[in-house]
Every structure is written in structure tokens, then in C-alpha cells.
């Protein structure tokens, strides 16, 4: 059993924090629990804790590993540690076995100030979390048949979430970065055309590739970071 972790300084909107990448060589429950123990210990060394985590991204070698890792994540990152989430299947990241990687962002003092807004009815992922003027949306996906239809399905749900956050925080919320994980078999076309279809034209985009998501039939998952007011 082996778990490794890398932690790099990170900041968002002038807030200091850390970006962590923890990798387990298998998806056994003991290994997955050890992954979060390692994350918790590493954040503690930097004056933070699991409640300060605002976003996590789970990557696994197989669907079985993703499903097992997702269950542990929602158990360990519950209550005050609840955060924006996404998950992907990407066997190319793991040379052998059923490896799992957990990436995430923690921000100083986020646990004390975090607002968690759930879907209605409640779903495994929350809709978004906010801390101060920073807003982090969980990954949005769809299972309608085609890639363009999935973009069209995702667009109004992102817009609705941004509007909800604006109302909750009492000031306009605007997206400042987008990360889209797209299935390797899909040609998404020009970046700007995809962003336009998502209602996110002009927002800086990072594209990742993967081979699967939380359920079959999905071709894209879209993560959005946003700010309230005039901050950046």
C-alpha cells in the first residue's frame, strides 16, 4: 500500500492556500482512507484542515476504482469539509492496478467562512461552495445523446447556479476560469465555440481529457470557478 502527495502553494482572489495531489496505488478502502489521512496531515502542516478544502477532483484508473473512491470522498469530505467535486476515469494516469488520484484546493480560513449550497433534491455533489467572494461550482455533466446536446443541457444549469450565488452573496458573480474534461473520442471543435455554447464566452479555459465519468454516456464535465463583485 502506498500513498504519495505533492502540495504546492496556491492562491485565489488574493487568498493564500495550497493545491494538493495525492495518489494511491490501489482503490482498497484502507488505501483510500490513507489518502485522506495524508491530505489531512499535509494540510495541517500548513495551518489548514479538511474543512478548508473548497474543490476536489478525483481521477481513477477504472470505473470500479472511481466508484469506491467516490464513496470514501463523500464520507471523509462531509459536513464542514463538504466541497465542490468532480470525478473522471483515466487509465493512462496509472501504469498498473486500480490507482486513484485526488487533486484539490484548500484556502486559508475557508472552513470558517464556507457556504455550501446543495441541489434540491440533494445529490452526492453539492451545487457550489463559496468563501468570501470566491465561488466554486461542482462539475456539471449530462447524459443526453450527443456532445452538442450535452453542452446545451449544461449551459442553463451553470447560468442558474451563478444566478443563485449572486442572489445569495448579494452581488454579481462572474466566472473567472473553466476546466472542461472531455472524452478522448470527442472532437470539441474550437475552444471559443464550445465556451459560447456553454454561456462562458471569453472565460479562460483549461481542457483535460479522460475516458469516463460518474456514469456511462457522458462526454464532458465542466468545472467553474467564479468571483463575486469586482475581485479577480
Could you explain how this protein is built, in words?
The protein has 5 helices and 11 strands, in the order E-E-H-E-H-E-E-H-E-E-E-H-E-H-E-E. Helix 1 packs across helix 2 (63-76). It has helices at residues 29-44, 63-76, 110-113, 147-169, 191-197; strands spanning 3-12, 15-24, 53-60, 84-89, 100-107, 115-117, 128-131, 134-140, 173-183, 205-210, 220-228. The chain has a 6-stranded mixed beta sheet with strand order 6-7-8-11-9-10. The protein has 232 residues and is an alpha+beta fold. It has a single domain, classed as RutC-like (60s Ribosomal Protein L30, Chain: A), CATH 3.30.1330.
Residues in helix, %: 25-40%
By CATH reckoning, the class would read: Alpha Beta
Number of strands: 11
How is the largest sheet built, in terms of strand order? 6-7-8-11-9-10
In terms of per-residue confidence, which ranges show pLDDT below 50 for 5 or more consecutive residues? none
Nearest-integer average pLDDT? 96
Q: What is the count of structural domains?
A: 1
Work out the strand percent: 35-45%
Give the CATH architecture. 2-Layer Sandwich
**Number of helical regions:** 5
Question: Any idea what the shape is?
Answer: globular
Class based on secondary structure composition and strand pairing: alpha+beta
Largest sheet entry: 6 strands, mixed
Compute the CA-based radius of gyration.
17 Å
CATH superfamily: RutC-like
* CATH T-level fold name: 60s Ribosomal Protein L30, Chain: A
Order of helices and strands: EEHEHEEHEEEHEHEE
Distance between the termini: 41 Å
Amino acid at each position: 500500500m502506498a500513498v504519495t502527495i505533492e502540495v504546492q502553494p496556491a492562491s485565489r482572489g488574493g487568498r493564500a492556500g495550497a493545491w494538493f495531489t495525492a495518489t494511491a496505488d490501489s482503490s482498497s478502502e484502507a488505501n483510500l482512507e490513507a489518502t485522506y489521512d495524508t491530505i489531512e496531515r499535509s494540510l495541517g502542516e500548513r495551518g489548514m484542515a479538511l474543512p478548508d478544502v473548497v474543490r476536489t477532483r478525483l481521477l481513477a484508473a477504472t470505473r470500479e476504482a472511481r466508484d469506491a473512491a467516490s464513496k470514501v470522498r463523500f464520507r471523509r469530505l462531509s459536513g464542514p469539509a463538504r466541497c465542490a467535486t468532480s470525478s473522471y476515469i483515466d487509465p493512462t494516469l496509472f501504469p498498473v492496478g486500480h490507482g486513484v488520484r485526488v487533486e484539490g484546493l484548500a484556502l486559508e480560513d475557508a472552513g470558517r467562512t464556507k457556504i455550501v449550497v446543495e441541489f434540491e433534491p440533494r445529490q452526492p455533489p453539492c451545487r457550489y461552495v463559496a468563501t468570501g467572494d470566491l465561488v466554486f461550482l461542482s462539475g456539471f455533466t449530462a447524459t443526453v445523446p450527443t456532445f452538442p446536446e450535452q453542452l446545451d443541457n449544461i449551459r442553463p444549469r451553470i447560468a442558474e447556479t451563478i444566478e443563485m450565488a449572486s442572489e445569495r452573496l448579494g452581488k454579481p458573480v462572474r466566472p473567472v476560469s473553466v476546466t472542461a474534461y472531455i472524452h478522448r473520442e470527442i472532437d470539441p471543435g474550437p475552444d471559443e465555440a464550445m465556451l459560447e455554447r456553454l454561456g462562458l464566452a471569453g472565460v479562460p479555459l483549461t481542457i483535460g481529457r479522460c475516458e469516463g465519468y460518474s456514469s456511462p454516456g457522458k462526454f464532458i464535465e465542466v468545472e467553474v470557478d467564479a468571483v463575486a463583485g469586482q475581485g479577480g
